[in-house]
Amino acid sequence: MSSQLQKQVGLKLGSGYPKPIVDHKAAYAEARKKIYALKKRPEVKSESERVYQKHGSRRSLSKKN
Q1: What is the pTM assigned to this prediction?
Q2: Residue 17 CB partners (closer than 8 Å, separation 6+)
Q3: Higher pLDDT, 39 or 18
Q4: For residue 65, what pLDDT is reported?
Q5: Which among 11, 22, 35, 50 could disulfide-bond with 16, CB atoms 3.0 to 4.6 Å apart, if both were Cys?
Q6: CB 44 within 8 A of CB 38
Q7: Boundaries of every domain in the chain
Q8: At 13, phi and psi to the nearest 5?
């Protein structure tokens, strides 16, 4: 929250309102890094393909009917 917004609403982070526990930008960046690292693993790729084959898009099937 910007200092200008804090003044507008009449509070100050850390005294009248607690500071954020998590730095959302840093947490988001770290989570993305971990997810993409997992997606590169061969066992994850093969499981993803298996799930897609079973539950994937059925759009092309509906066009045939």
Answers
A1: 0.49
A2: 11
A3: 39
A4: 47
A5: 11
A6: yes
A7: 21-65
A8: -60, 135
With a CB cutoff of 8 Å and minimum separation 6, the contacts of 6 are 12, 13
Residue 64: the pLDDT is: 53
Where does the pLDDT of residue 63 fall: very low under 50, low under 70, confident under 90, or very high at 90 and above? Answer: low
Q: What is the C-alpha separation between 25 and 28, in angstroms, rounded?
A: 5
Residue entry with tokens 């009449």: 10
Question: Which runs of consecutive H residues, i.e. helices, occur in the chain?
Answer: 3-9, 24-39, 42-55, 59-64
Q: What is the C-alpha to C-alpha distance for residues 2 and 11, in angstroms, rounded to an integer?
A: 11
